[in-house]
TrEMBL record:
Protein name: Small ribosomal subunit protein uS13
Lineage of origin: Bacteria, Bacillati, Bacillota, Clostridia, Halanaerobiales
InterPro entries, sorted: Rbsml_uS13_C, Ribosomal_uS13, Ribosomal_uS13-like_H2TH, Ribosomal_uS13_bac-type, Ribosomal_uS13_CS
Gene name of this polypeptide: rpsM
GO CC terms in record: cytosol; small ribosomal subunit
Keywords assigned: Ribonucleoprotein, Ribosomal protein, RNA-binding, rRNA-binding, tRNA-binding
Amino acid sequence: MARIEGVDLPKDKQIKIGLTYIYGIGRSSAQDILEQTKIDPNTRVHELTEDQVAKLRNVIDEEYVVEGELRRQKRSDIKRLKDIGSYRGVRHRKGLPVRGQRTRTNARTRKGPKKSVQ
């Protein structure tokens, strides 16, 4: 079983899909990583050699911000917006949609369940 950045990759998946289990790596990033390391994207995770896993670890460590560091970075970005009092920061603070979506209807994910008016 391959363990990269503290994440156990699912052993029966293709490596191009398995890499997306790491927070901060999507399909296109996974494809780029596999091209750099010259690993076949259709290889299953359990078929990887230790040498290939080490190559993957090195590329991800050197070129990508992933997992805990990325989460900390995003959290600090949102905190900065809140601290300076920007419009986006105020929306984060109030728990409302940040990117201009309407709130008269919908927006239930950010606002939570309906509160009836009495």
